[in-house]
Amino acid sequence: MCGIVGYVGPRKATPVLLDGLRRLEYRGYDSAGVALVDEGAIAVTKCVGRVGNLIEAVDDTAGGNLGIAHTRWATHGGVTQPNAHPHCDMTGRIAVVHNGIIDNDEGLKARLAADGVTFASETDTEVLPHLIARHYAGDPHEAVLKALQEVRGTYGLVVVFADHPDLIIAARNGSPLVVGLGEGENFIASDSHALVRYTRRVIYLEDREVACITATEVNSVQLDGSDAIHTVEELEAIYGSEDKGEFPHYMLKEIHEQPESIGRCLRGRILPDLGSARLGGFDMSPRDLTEIPRVTILGCGTSYHAAMVGAMAIEGLARVPAQAEIASEFRYRNPVIDPKALFMAVSQSGETADTLGGIKEVVTKGGRVMGVVNVVGSTIARTCGAGVYIHSGPEVAVASTKAFTSQVTALYTFTLMLARTRTLGPHDAVELARALVSVPDVVSEYLAEPGPIEEAVRHLVGARYALFMGRGLSFPVALEGALKLKEIAYIPCEAYPGGEMKHGPIAMMEPGTPVIAIVPDDQHREKMISNMQEVRARGAALTVIHSRGDLKAQSLASVSIPVPRIHTLLTPLISVLPLQLLSYQAALALGKDIDRPRNLAKSVTVE
Ligand code: F6R
Asked: What ligand 1 atom has the least distance to the C-alpha of 300?
């Protein structure tokens, strides 16, 4: 979603800002802009479309050692040049970029308009520079503090003043901002991705904190004027390369990175000889684990699908009641929170507003939440305080792939640890621990020989409708396959548990309807074979993802995609791989923008 970059220091600001915006492109956006403070004036350039358009429009030889830049993902007002950020006050001497939503913008707009302010855009953001201007009498910090007293809503806000070519003011409430500390220069960004090229030392601003940033100092206070205490943190070494390397798209690269990313998630955590696991960040003794009465796992989108797999594994193996919840629903249904229960929040970005809202609801009611997060230092990781990092490395493609398999791996690791304290005897535990350790090799084995994906794609391209079908642990995998296909190939499709077919969706079957069945060799296999026969009898073109050597499943398939065998609990980690490749190849065949699908953002920081 929207991205922010700011710079103050001895370098020319423009190249730093444009490079930062490039690094934030993966978040999804529809317009971009930059404001440079130079020679007592602010020069704003903004345009619709890609950062590439902005780079062409900006004079990169322009001076100016201080500036701010933004990528916008439209919420209030259409995708137009006037609506792109930065926004200025009427004199053009104050410029702001803003992530988040101002809830009382209508009231503020009416008041400002009555005072003679004219608005240049349809955005909620534009009230901010006008409001700051009304409070400005030479002290930028005081003006921003006073303006923010009148604002309700969420913001990651960065402000510059033409009169102060050495000062950036940043304020945070519900939308992340991170200050990057350099030698004689400082940076601000909504996401540390924009900073890693320049510095690893960062300060994460807290909610209601307002910081004054110059080239040599960072001073901040709370919105109420009290001191803000912050610590300097070191960004963890970034795993994996941020370039596409030999791959044509980030998504394909990230699919092929899964042996390493899953391996990193497991490293040092599995104790194969004990048949157990160690998750340092969980900070729970075996006794604590035996006392957990139930587990609820929150997430959105792909992370929710990982949560479903995790909940099924926990309940099935550790015999602890467990459920997955869509965070955006959970947060608003006034859930009952058992303070003894364990809540987990799954998020790749660690910034998803709905997941964060769910966490806050649990904490407000006295519950505890463990994060299962990829981005180190992200808001969800810091809000939970405890949990597990999945260590996928940067996931740049909007469609999540390697984060899903690492989220599931982390949840399995927790399941093993929990089940070992309750239901799982040493023999079965050692078998599962060894199987988990083998996953990276099994993933490599599949990716080396992925089967006839392109043949399956031929049934999908041009289809009016497609159906994914799975039972048990393969149902969330089916959901994930359908989500991927919608996200990047825009092919209408849905996922159903096989047992639901007769209750409705079978009406959709007609000759040639593509059905993708996920049929590992587990306790649901026989029932799935019946479900496949039912749709086949109605002319469906069946692509079957099945365990290698399953001749019966193969015989029912129009396209058979065999996958290596693995412990039945772990099958989602393997059967999701052909589905990732299927959506990738379908999007490729249809000529879609695979890494940046329409309307989607990588990190959904607003509701
Ligand atoms: C799907 C996808 C989204 C995210 C969802 C949650 O490919 O990327 O569905 O999974 O927006 O995001 P995180 O995991 O960052 O909380």
From this structure: 6
